Amino acid sequence: MKKYLSFFKIRFLNGLQYRTAAYAGVATQFAWGFMSLLMFSAFYKTKPEAFPMEFSQVSSYIWLQQAFLALYMVWFLETDIFLAISNGNIAYELCRPIDLYNMWYAKNLASRFSKAVLRCLPILLIAFFLPRPYGLSLPENTITLLAFLLSMSLGVLVVIGICMLIYIATFYTLSPMGVRIVAISFIDFFSGAVIPLPFLPDKTRIVLQLLPFASMQDIPFRVYCGHITGLDRVIGILLQLFWLVFLITLGKFFMKKALKKIVVQGG
Questions:
Q1: How many CA atoms are closer than 13 Å to the CA of 250, on its beta-carbon side?
Q2: Distance separating the N- and C-terminal Cα atoms of the chain
Q3: Is the pLDDT score of 61 beyond 90?
């Protein structure tokens, strides 16, 4: 465990060095957040009772999404892992007395946390002081906050579990680009990154909420907003836990299978 914590610490500290990129990202996320709010506001002014979430809940959802973008967006992938697979440098990784899956998992987790630490605080602070219903509202009570923190943690781990499958799929391709484009486009929509899942048709929404993609950010953000409460909140968190265990088990299985047939070319 100590060696994986060391990988986490090194990658986390390395990620904190990119402050200028983080500040530019904050500005971009504010612009994107305001544009999203204005778009939803235009729809809500027509017939607010027709929508499945209150506008204040949608506002909180959007600001949480922007503040924790680095934690939940699948397209924050590690380029060095793809390069190691495609150019053969993975041979050096295989020489180390470590579990490759665990090492990559720790690196991904650290990289996302370092990006989120630099970006989230300015967005959260300013969003809290925006006037209602455009700002970020506080959770209804302490239980909701604790449930959100638990759901948020599980959501991040599920995201990395899915990302690990994307890395592993690269073992079977000549280039990682195709896998990345297809996976990112598919997952972004079905995880609620483009539009919250409650806005989708009922039959589609019921199916999507059972898939692992809803466990990434849709469930945590709706728990915070108070859109998921009581028994539904407990079921949502248990569903996240199930998908986390399933994805890690599946990832380790395919990683082991891929490494048995890996071929490193070159002299």
A1: 18
A2: 34
A3: yes
How far apart are the C-alpha atoms of 240 and 154, rounded to whole Å?
6
Q: Which residue has the tokens 């890690």?
A: 248
Q: Tell me how many degrees the CA angle 64-68-74 measures, rounded to the nearest 5.
A: 120
Hey, what are 218's tokens? 């849709």
CB neighbours of 108 closer than 8 A, spacing ≥ 6? Answer: 78, 160, 163, 164
- Owner of token pair 């990832």: 251
The Cα–Cα gap between 246 and 224 comes to: 25
Domain residue ranges of the chain, discontinuous segments joined by +: 2-260
The amino acid that residue 75 corresponds to is W
158-191 pLDDT tens trace? 999 999 999 988 888 867 788 888 888 888 888 8
What is the radius of gyration, based on Cα positions, of the chain?
Answer: 19
**The whole model's pTM is what?**
0.90
Would you say how long the chain is, in residues? 267
Report long-range pairs for 79-83 (Cβ below 8 Å, ≥24 apart). Answer: 81/107, 81/167, 82/167, 82/170, 82/176, 82/180
Which one of 24-33, 76-85, 205-214 scores highest in mean pLDDT? 205-214
* Pair 107, 11: CB distance under 8 Å: yes
